[in-house]
Amino acid sequence: MKKEEARRIKVAHFSDLHFSIGNLLEAGGCFHHAVSVAISEGVDVAIISGDLTDHKQDAHSAALHKLMQEIRRLADHCPVLILQGTFLHDYPGMLAIYRFAGGKYPVETVDKIGQVALMGTQWRFAAPGDSLDGVRLLVSCVPTVNKSDLVSSVGVEHVAQAMGDVLAGLMQGVFAPQNLAARAAGVPTITVGHGTVSGSLTEHGVPMAGKDHEFSLGGLYAAQSTATMLGHIHRHQSWEREIERFTQRVAYPGSIGRFHYGEEGKKGFLIWSIGPRSCDFEFHETPARVMVDFLFDGKPDMDWLEQQSASCVGSFVRVRYSVDAELAATVDKQAIEQVLAEAAEVRIEPKLLVSQRQRCSGISTLPTLAEKVEKWCESTENEAASVVGRVQQLATRDAKSIAANLIKEIINEAQRVSRERRDDDGHALDRFEGPELGIAGGAGLAQ
């Protein structure tokens, strides 16, 4: 146990920084906080598991300059290892510039599948069977991969298999033997990857089900690493298993900040304590911005919004509502912004409901309104006789007589129904009292 404690190493794990001009305040503030905490905690190594930028960045951009400053702060404290993330975010070839961030210790970048060893304070790429003398930490790297990566790593005959099966085979067949040897030699081991674990949850609470994801827990455990550090999903979550006094843990730290509305959970990074046979981590929260969603099925309730405004000071607020397209102009967006004036941002997203209309071919060529109504009834499968009769009354009679005639029809129908009912003694229930007119049997209707 004393030997285990003596070989433990402290690792800061960051992921999904997403630096860009649009995210600069959020990413810059959260990563600066995280780096400061990692330095104060005295970590031995820092690992960033991909998606450092939100998209391709110009070399002179303020976002890239800020990112390089923070990497330099880390490198002044400890060795840094950076993994290739999604190609859309970590543009191909872009990782190489991070090596020039400077600092007291080296910054190593990895964009190919393989293993990296920490020798003292220097990184060295390791091949299967290499000596483990002087190795402080062995890291198995699985960056974002494509078919060409798989061809060079496991052979063309395996490319047609499912990605998860290929990577699971890679873990067991390539990484596991060296990791087992490292464990026997008392060297802590890590697997770092960028991708999706089947069964994990997204930051919006959606389960990643199916077999088309890069990793399975079984495949990751098969690598025989003590700790597995993953990037790509912005939600912190973890799994673990223990077999014969050997503890393995798998974890996403989640994104460093909150970049999208609807993201659940806290934002932060992990500080790991890793030994040859066991590991543990602690989640450290960053000061990510607060995002609030207000959803309305219909027009926004302005009184309710005003009641909620005090709790939205400094927050990022999104107001969503659904209204008919014809009523869109009745929603005062400026009033919503005024009610939430103390929020850091107010985003208004209306959903306009378009009325579904059925075309009635030829209706405009008919000469009379009654004929047009009859054509409309035919098209919409309504009973034409009653509707056309009502239209004809509108054209030939005054309002008072139409109303009187309609009341007669209602009473006559009610009397017909009552005659068909019998009480228990067999007497007819022929008295009908109008609830509003106060009449019996229709007497005096026409007066």
Structure description:
By secondary structure, the protein is of the alpha/beta class. Helix content is 30%, strand content 22%. The protein folds into two domains: 2-285, 4-Layer Sandwich (Purple Acid Phosphatase, chain A, domain 2), CATH 3.60.21; 291-353. It contains eleven helices and 16 strands. α2 (24-40) packs parallel to α3 (62-75) and α9 packs antiparallel against α10. The longest helix has 22 residues, at 163-184. The N and C termini lie far apart (106 Å).
Number of helices: 11
Specify the helix fraction band. Answer: 25-40%
How far apart the termini lie comes to: 106 Å
Under CATH, the homologous superfamily of the largest domain reads Metallo-dependent phosphatases
User: What general form does the structure show?
Assistant: elongated
Number of strands: 16
Order of helices and strands: HEHEHEEEEEHHEHEEEEEEHEHEHHH
**Spatial order of the strands forming the largest sheet:** 6-5-7-8-9-11-10
Rg to the nearest angstrom?
35 Å
Count of spatially separate domains? 2
Q: What does the average pLDDT come to?
A: 85
Give the CATH class of the largest domain. Alpha Beta
Class of secondary structure makeup = alpha/beta
List keywords for this structure.
single chain; 447 residues; alpha/beta; Purple Acid Phosphatase, chain A, domain 2; 2 domains; 7-stranded mixed β-sheet; 6-stranded mixed β-sheet; 30% helix; 22% strand; elongated; disordered C terminus
Short description:
This protein has 447 residues and is of the alpha/beta class.
